[in-house]
Amino acid sequence: MSGPLAGYKVLDMSRILAGPWAGQLLADMGAEVIKIERPVVGDDTRHWGPPYLKDRFGNNTEDAAYYFCANRGKKSVTVDITQPEGQKIIRQLAAQADVLIENYKVGGLKKYGLDYSSLSVLNPRLVYCSITGFGQTGPYADRPGYDFLIQGMGGLMSITGEPTDSHGNGGPVRAGVAVTDLFSGMYAANAIQGALLERHSSDLGQYIDIALLDVQTAVLANQASNYLIGGEVPGRIGNSHPNIVPYQAFATQDGHLILAVGNDAQFQRFCDVIGQPQLALDSRYASNRARVENRETLCSQISDLLQRNNTDDWLQRFENNSIPCGPINGIDQVFNDLQIVARKMQISIADKRAGEIPGVANPIKYSRSTLDYAVPPPELGSSTESILGEYLEYSALEITALRNKSII
């Protein structure tokens, strides 16, 4: 059985991460995704290295590793949309497409006649998704938006990192990957599929407005609820959990481990394992509510006890007693983890330049549908001539003329 989105055609006019992440998810599910890029330059992330992909002979190619995380399964077509001939190509492709994804500044495509209002006249069934920093409305709409500043503005950094101590140590920290971009891509892909489902009944496409700041606010999740319902502004508490104790990283004799004790029964077993069964009977710690209120004294005792033994020994003892725990792995350890190996989360895609390109699998696992990893992230403009010739029926002479004028 082919992917669940087989037969759908997506025009991906986005670059960097949020839009391409959405496009890659749709491609994994079987949609045909045509990536529109600037001639010569292409997607900015092609140049965000080192490291760069190496060819079969060990030489660097022109494409950075960053680009490969979000562009598999796509066809690359280079078009200069600032020129009338380039705009015509996009309009012709949009007339055939089911979906268009773009992340230009608000109004950036309107001057070229490539905005939703213009293209929906040509194709009323088009689902058009715009991804911007702040959305199409509001006082910040015209501002450029980047993941790092959105993590700050959207509250994530105010709850990430160690609290500042009396010596000025600690402070806000961004997440280690561009999580706002990634969440925005996921929301965009979800919204697109919802619009495609709705189209079955209405036979009409629609416009989707995704803002990074909206997304970051939405994924504050329980921290937002804690504030809106509890009335207290959450702060930075390092690796601790605001609502569960003990639920954090602890130092051991030779490293660190994570404890995630989520209920009172687990806490009782935990106390037995560490040789302190009386802690579970202590009124200060007998319930999660009490443990949250007495976090500092409890965690101080746990910290002292765990430093008396090494990480592997503690992990084995906790796992044997069904106490949620885990190591803090480096990325190399992640890909060597037995569970990650068993779940086939590392993939390899055949590529004519490099022989093969390693990558990370989509985590979705269907019982019948399959995800497709056969097509590697494309070389810049590798499908330009085939798309123009086969889809739009441009002649070889017309294609040559466009290339000579640097339109493609």
Q: Can you give a write-up of this model?
A:
The protein has 16 helices and 13 strands. The chain has 408 residues and is α/β, with parallel strands linked by helices. It folds into 2 domains: 273 residues, Crotonobetainyl-coa:carnitine coa-transferase, domain 1 (Rossmann fold, 3-Layer(aba) Sandwich), CATH 3.40.50.10540; 87 residues, 2-Layer Sandwich (formyl-coa transferase, domain 3), CATH 3.30.1540. The strands form 4 sheets. The protein has a 6-stranded parallel beta sheet with strand order 5-2-1-6-7-8, sandwiched between helices. The chain has a 3-stranded antiparallel beta sheet with strand order 9-10-11, with helices on one face. A two-stranded antiparallel ribbon has the order 3-4. Strand 12 and strand 13 form a beta hairpin. The longest helix is centred in the middle third of the chain and has 24 residues.
Write the H/E string, N to C: EHEEEHEHEHEHHEHHEEHHHHEHHEEHH
The main sheet comes to: 6 strands, parallel
Number of structural domains: 2
CATH architect. name of the largest domain: 3-Layer(aba) Sandwich
Name the CATH superfamily classification of the largest domain. Crotonobetainyl-coa:carnitine coa-transferase, domain 1
Please tally the β strands and state the result: 13
Shape: elongated
Q: Count of helical segments?
A: 16
CATH class of the largest domain: Alpha Beta
User: Roughly how many Å is the radius of gyration?
Assistant: 25 Å
Gap from first CA to last CA: 36 Å
Q: The CATH topology of the largest domain, please?
A: Rossmann fold
Mean pLDDT: 96
Oligomerization: single chain
Main-sheet strand order equals 5-2-1-6-7-8
Derived from helix and strand composition plus strand pairing, the structural class reads alpha/beta
Ranges where pLDDT stays below 50 over 5 or more residues in a row are none
Which range does the strand content fall in?
15-25%
Q: Considering DSSP H and I runs of 4 or more, what fraction of the residues is helical? A: 25-40%
